[in-house]
From TrEMBL:
This is TetR family transcriptional regulator. Residues 26-45 bind DNA. It comes from Streptomyces lacrimifluminis. The keyword Chloroplast does not apply. Residues 3-63 form the HTH tetR-type domain. Pfam families: TetR_N.
Length: 202
């Protein structure tokens, strides 16, 4: 029951932060959205900062869960990594993207919960790199020809994905450019095919 109440409060807090922005949201606003007294709210969270951090931790935990699900799906490893990245960032943005205060909420995530954001990002990189390493062990990809590590590839993919969002407002164009980049990465880490032995040459 306590966990259900906490979830209810965090849902109400997210609604309030999206409605008013982090700076203008008060504990009274959250209490009102949660249908409880401010005194009762303080029994669960001693401050707005603690409340926001708890919400950030929950959001990132859920996003990482979506990553785990995406990585277990069928398909080549780069497609699964791409789907996992989309699930992670899509999950984090889904509830705030439609809010006029979405940018402020994102800024607050870095200011108030920067350590949580950093920990989750490190966990994301580790999960994606592990998927690439598993694929390399199975012979699906190799890194020796590109002189890169699995983590190098992941960090590059994340950087390009972030950059594409800033270079064009056209989602179709971004998708086309991303698809091209993924093809280039795939070509760079595809295992080299051994030439046929002379006696077996056609």
């Amino acid at each position: 029951m306590a966990d259900d109440r906490t979830e209810h409060i965090l849902d109400a807090a997210l609604t309030a932060f999206c409605q008013y922005g982090y700076g203008k949201t008060t504990m009274q606003d959250v209490a009102r959205a949660a249908g409880m007294s401010r005194a009762a709210l303080y029994l669960h969270f001693p401050s707005k900062e603690d409340l926001f951090r708890a919400g950030s931790r929950r959001a990132h935990s859920r996003a990482l869960g979506e990553v785990d699900t995406a990585l277990t799906q069928q398909g080549d490893v780069l497609s699964r990594v791409d789907a996992a990245m989309a699930a992670y960032f899509g999950g984090l943005m889904a509830q705030i993207s439609s809010s006029v205060h979405g940018g402020e909420v994102l800024d607050a995530s870095l200011d108030v919960a920067g350590d949580i954001v950093s920990e989750a990002h490190a966990a994301l990189v580790a999960r994606l790199a592990s998927a690439l390493q598993t694929a390399a062990a199975a012979g699906e990809v190799q890194f020796s020809t590109s002189d890169a590590t699995a983590e190098d590839i992941v960090l590059l993919l994340l950087a390009v994905a972030d950059g594409l969002k800033k270079t064009s407002a056209d989602p179709q164009l971004r998708q086309q450019r991303k698809a091209l980049f993924l093809r280039l990465v795939h070509a760079g880490i595809a295992p080299l095919r051994q030439p046929p032995a002379e006696g077996n040459a056609p």
